[in-house]
Design goal:
Number of strands of chain A: 9
CATH superfamily of the largest domain in chain A: Nucleoside Triphosphate Pyrophosphohydrolase
Strand content of chain A: 15-25%
Radius of gyration of chain A: 20 Å
Oligomer: homodimer
Largest sheet of chain A: 7 strands, mixed
Organism (chains A, B): Olivibacter domesticus (Pseudosphingobacterium domesticum)
Structural class of chain A: alpha+beta
Number of helices of chain A: 5
Pfam families (chains A, B): NUDIX (PF00293), WHD_NrtR (PF21906)
CATH topology of the largest domain in chain A: Nucleoside Triphosphate Pyrophosphohydrolase
Protein name (chains A, B): 8-oxo-dGTP diphosphatase
CATH class of the largest domain in chain A: Alpha Beta
Number of domains of chain A: 2
Order of helices and strands of chain A: EEEEHEEEHHHEEH
InterPro entries (chains A, B): NUDIX_hydrolase-like_dom_sf, NUDIX_hydrolase_dom, WH-like_DNA-bd_sf, WH_DNA-bd_sf, WHD_NrtR
Chain lengths: 232, 232
DNA sequence: TCAAAAGTGTTGTCCGTACACCCATGA
DNA sequence: TCATGGGTGTACGGACAACACTTTTGA
């Protein structure tokens, strides 16, 4: 290898698609931009990646600066590089996605950079116009979580730690956008043996309170080396 | 939007992981590099993406220049951006993969750029040392095609147009790295009803000649909107 | 006592798996 | 006639899908 080769750096951005679940619907976390291009538009949390940070680190930093969220594990989704996607030139973006427990965060979102005015959850079914190609990125993310959720229990990441079977079913119904049979759903979920039944019940409802469950990650890891199928 | 923003361009590379199947084993297409860094090493076909071409177009061009292969449909795999992956600085690479009919090409590979000395198929199980993080990229690609092949009939892309059921089974065995039951495999494949039985038979074998089949893409598209499962 | 959601079983069908022998062909 | 791979069927168990009523609770 030679040492007198020119030094180069990749210029590119990273974007975050963060999903949450509340009130029976899927939501995505958007920021209101305070900088050109697309000043005052809504868009995904995203920014330029520094030369000395990995892409995985960069999305974490960007998400923290844009929303105040910390320690979120994101997975890479896809890299978008359409010639027209960015008005300042062909800048590619590496998109990441994550699913998280919305109720633990609520609207306690605090941007710490001047690039962002505020961060807010938006229902997937009623998104505003978005900056860049962010609409497209979000659509690709949904396809991804649909595929993903069929093979691994990531849906639990969207629920509170303690949840009822009905909440779990509603979540799957929201992701698949179709109704599921209550008895079959419960039978199947319980058969996997990855839920721990708690002694507690739901509180504050004006009807029969449902049992609460927890996702039992230890059991899950023990039992399933390979794959599950949650899609039917 | 403002027009006096600085103009920027992403600098990055794209790499191609091309799989083929012959003699009962999976192969990957490598090039011998004729340029620094990693001059004289084997690596994946890959190079810098131009500012005015999409990433999808770039991998096609690069593959053509490096190997002479034309019209290959590749899908994006993942974007690699480790700080140490490239000796000239942190240069990210967008990796693509494809599977193709090796016997239609054979060793008729003709690089048309001085950056490459030659292109050659290498068995996946006996790879030489590779430039950059290309070993890692290939490993990720295999995981990807294993997942992919369970849900869609892309395995046919690796076989000749006309093939025997045994060849098809050997291909799945190579991808999954495990033996399958002949009767069950045939039953399952034929039940999907995506194969067209031909009137022809295998030639040039010193034992009973097997029937030849074709993948029937029309039937496939008609019957299956969603998914198949070829993995068991 | 009413409204609302929780909770619960059976049956038929399909799919996957395990398993062993005869057949056709060319050398 | 032999060696080689081609080609075939059955029986069991597990998973999925369809389907409706009773129970519990708070208001």
């Amino acid at each position: 290898m030679q040492s007198n080769l020119p030094h180069l750096q990749s210029i590119f951005t990273a974007d975050c698609v963060i999903f949450g679940f509340s009130e029976g619907e899927l939501k995505v976390l958007l920021i209101e931009r305070n900088e050109y291009p697309f000043k005052e538009w809504w868009g995904l949390p995203g920014f330029f990646v520094e030369h000395n940070e990995t892409i995985d680190d960069a999305v974490k930093r960007i998400l923290l600066e844009h929303t105040g969220l910390k320690g979120i594990y994101m997975e890479q989704l896809y890299t978008f590089g359409d010639l027209q996607r960015h008005p300042q030139g062909r800048i590619i973006t590496v998109a990441y996605y994550a699913m998280l427990r919305l109720e633990a965060i609520g609207n306690n979102l605090k941007p710490s950079t001047d690039y962002v005015r505020k961060a807010q959850w938006h229902p997937l079914n009623h998104l505003p116009d978005l900056a860049f190609d962010h609409k497209n990125i979000i659509e690709k993310s949904i396809e991804k979580i649909r595929r993903k959720v069929s093979h691994s229990p990531i849906a639990f990441e969207l629920l509170p730690e303690k949840f009822t079977l009905t909440q779990l079913q509603q979540l799957y119904e929201a992701i698949w956008d179709k109704k599921l049979d209550k008895r079959n759903f419960r039978k199947k979920m319980l058969k996997y043996n990855i839920l721990k039944e708690l002694d507690e019940k739901q509180k504050g409802v004006s009807y029969r309170a449902a049992k609460l469950y927890k996702f039992d990650k230890r059991k899950y890891n023990k039992i399933f080396k390979n794959e599950l199928n949650f899609s039917k």
